[in-house]
Amino acid sequence: MADHYGGDSAESEDDFNPAPADNSDEASQNSSPHVSRKSDNRTSSPAADDDQDEESDEEHHPPKHATKRPRMHNDEDDAEGEEEDEEDDEGGGGNDDDDEEEDEDEDEEDEDDVQQRHRRKRPRRNNASAYFDIEAEVEDEDEAEDDEKDGEEIEDFIDNAHPDDIADSGRMDDDRRHRDLDRRRELEASLDAEKQAEIFMKRYGKRAPTRGYRDMTVVPKRLLLPSVEDPGIWAVRCKEGKEREVIFSIMRRVEERLGTKNEVPITSAFERAGPNSVMKGYIYVEARRQTDIMIALDGILNVYPRSNMILVEIKDMPDLLRVNKTPNLEPGAWVRLKRPAKHAGDLAQVLDVTENGLEARVRFIPRLDYGVRDESVTADGKRKRPPGVPGPRPPQRLFSETEARKRNPRNLNGNLQSNSWTYMGEEFEAGFQVKDIKIQLLEVTNVNPTLEEVTKFAGSEDGTENLDLKALASSLKDSSANVAYVPGDVIEVYEGEQQGVVGKAVDVRGDIVTLKVTEGNLTGQLIEVPNKGLRKLFRIGDHVKVIGGSRYRDEVGMVVKISQDRVTLLTDQLNKEITVFSKDLREASDIGGQGSLGQYSLLDLVQLDPTTVGCIVKVDRESLVVLDQNSENKTVMPSQITNKLPKRRTAVATDRNGSEIRLDDVVREHGGQQRQGKIIHIHRSFLFLHSNDIKDSAGVFVTRASNVGTIAAKGGRINAQGGGPDLSAMNPALKRNTEGGNRMAPPKSFGPDRAINQTVTIRRGGYKGLLGIVKDTTDTHARVELHTKGKIITVPKADLAFKDKITGKPIDIYSRGGRGGGFAGSGGRGGFGGGSRDRDSGGSGGGWAGGRTPMASGGGERTPAWGASGPSARTPAWSRNETSGSRTPAWGDGSRTANPYDGNRTAYGGATAYGGGSRTPAWSSGAKTPAPDGFGHGSKTPAYGGSSGDAWGSKTPAYGISAPTPAASGGDSWGYTPGPTDAPTPRAGLGAPTPGALNPPTPGAYSAPTPAAISAPTPGAWTGGWAADAAPTPAVGAPTPAASGGYYGAPTPAPYGNPAETPAGGGIQYADDD
Amino acid sequence: MSENYVAPGQQRYLRACMVCSIVMTNARFREEGCPNCEEYIHLQGSQDAIDSCTSTVFDGLITLADPTKSWVAKWQRLDGYVRGVYATKVSGQLPDEVRTQLEDDHGVQYIPRDGSATEAD
Q1: How many domains does chain B have?
Q2: Predicted structure pTM score
Q3: What ipTM does the predicted assembly reach?
């Protein structure tokens, strides 16, 4: 027995201890049940059982040996054969399968050890006896075993042969071995394959020759996973960038100390500091103990074992050595060049890859200057620039043979047919430079070629675009860096374990996207996926916007085709199909596409030059397309646009029937194409219409207001007189003729009807008594939103009673005459009262028309209107003058006032200021009175109205009327007490409004005039200043035509020039007149 | 003594054997051949063979101090090789004829070192 163990290897150690016990057990009890029980307890080590069996066999079988020996010898004589038999027997013999056999071997491991002498020299082979069935085997088994024993212990077989024991022990043994066998089989079956394999490995790995590949072939990696028995791995800090050096330093140390007594006690060390690695700054050392690492690394530069080392967990160890295959470069793929420096960053296309995958032939667009700037060598032969520093690089341009020939013919070789050239040692094909470049010098990942870059390659060959989107896609695939997913994106997983999952992103954190699965089995679950294998998912019909990465950026369109991650969409604007990557798309929430360029957006009305306006019908990235009033499309830069015309909600025009048309009304052309559209802009007599039926110009077209008929007015506006406003009421000429006297038209408001937004009650009809707010009006009707019902009804204006919004008191919104509500001053108001009444009674037409026209037509037309209206309303003299045609004289004659006026006037006309003024309501009022001229100016500043307007007013009116006692009232009143003055002068009322406006500016205005040197002409008088009113007055009063004439006639230009600018001047003059 | 040490200045000449992934200088490959697989790929003295069977593109250096005991060696299938510096990843592909020769004539299972092997597992 002791012999058996003598040569034992470590493996049998485990078994050594149990063995004696077994023996004793066997010896004393020799019962098979006991054995099986025991083996049950030790199922984990079948080998032990075998061992023990062996031992017991050996113990108890000597007699058997003796008896059986003859037979055995008959069967087979040589030990080898016997052993094989035995082996087979032990293995259960039923299997001839290699694996099985090996399993058995494993079971016999200890046995092997025991019988090393024999085993080692004998080749394993599959014996025919494996086919014996069990019955036979049983018999054989004993024999074999005995034989074996025989072979082994031939010397003491005599000892063993105790005849008395044979029968008993043989039977017992037989039984026991059967059980044993069964048990072992069970065990084998229960062992999982992996474990078996592991056991194998353990055993046979060792026996394998230690060199070469022959035995490494089949072991799968998973069987190589680290276990606790393997050395540990520690991560040790080192200087970043010095990892390789450290590894070599360790190598040196290992080799230097090899064979000495202080060998480096580590088994390996490695680094994984690739260019894009996250494992920089560490090396990893494999050793049994941490202290070994200290010894190994002590004193090596750039590595810091004393800072804390990190023990890598066993399960993480394989990850340290994970290798990701660099995707092979495929011809057609896109890369960026790192070198030559001149081309750093340029896009290149792979044409071919060498067999070993280390070099690629790429083509790219050359940067040649054909020697134009070849100054790398100076006169004295020195290089100007240190090598490696790129000079200014020429722009990318395709190779031009002619240019090369021109500049440097000697260096040009090539072949015109194939269009391939060699120039300055570089190769060019079809305009591209072609070069073999090592793959280290190529940027293979994150290439992100833009479509612009790519098209340079694609378009250049024969003018056609033969974009290889597939190659492009593959180049883009690994560049997930700039793909941004936002919560809400519908995303498809196209790679990895979760492939095919579709969900909606709910959270994006770094590279991890959390998806809520919307389809399939996982519906409703949240899963987290790295954004690498993701792409946005669209469906045909989705409305999407291009958000980047291509020249189609900002296009919006509908998805019409999807193939993989390439999406084809039909753009909204151009009705063109474009193909982009799904990563560049986003579900579009906005319609119609890129809306705006700077401050200009689609359908805006813009002023192109003083006489041209246009509607923006297309917004490109840097330009706009404008449809002007003459129906011409113009492409303009934003800088060519004078300004943007604000949309005037209140703009009004009349159609060919005289009906009022406003924005958003639907009209149809009368002749021509009978196009129908909704009014989007009204500009003078031009209408810009929009129709969804029109394809070009974004559906916009231009027509004249007089050429359209109303189809539908917004909100069902009712035109009282059945098809149009009272034109006669608008016609100043008409008005003038019918004018019954000096009376003024009621101050008609301009701009938005003041009724709008007023709170009203309805006085009559089914809605009587209800409170509401006026939303919109026509001449006669108002649309009222009722407080009660939230409903908008149309009611005749006459049936409305206006209420103060806050107090609820009845108010008369029109009572303020022409003045806007802004007319704050109550004084003004008072003055008013009278005036306005007057007007009411008077012929309204003139004033009206005057006010109106300008309104509608804009500043330009104003002035003339003025002339007409003012006089007509006012003083007959005026009008007469006008009619007569000869102005100045007439003026001179008629009204001295006229002169000052004139001055004012002309000045005004010239002054653009006018235009501005014209818009304000104040104006209109002014229009009626001469004073207003001055006023006009003032009118710009609302403040005006407020203050001393009265004083002024007093004047003006006085003026206009001329009749009143000018001198007295005029002079005084205005000198000091405006209010009072007004009162006195009957007409003050009239003036009041206007002048009122004037005064405020007073100070400024006055002063202005003063210097105006109006005084100049009549220094004395004037300078007297205001106070001097009196003085001037008389002077002026001199109203004598002559005087005035002289005055004005000659001086006019000069003095007036000044006053002209300053309304005040004018005003003053008037005063004087008075 | 330290034959496998390569000074930083020389590291630009390093190449890695595509078969066994050992990293040595070009000169040493030429003079001595590959210490592990010379019998199959015959690098010694043949720059052509060196060019086709070794690669300048590799990363993740490993100092293998004790190939028999190291798990790293086992995992990288370097056990049984000589002590030295190896690479975890060697880019490049062995020429087909070399590869077939390796597998057919020598019965050697070629383990690609460029990372494609791990994907197979």
Answers
A1: 1
A2: 0.40
A3: 0.95
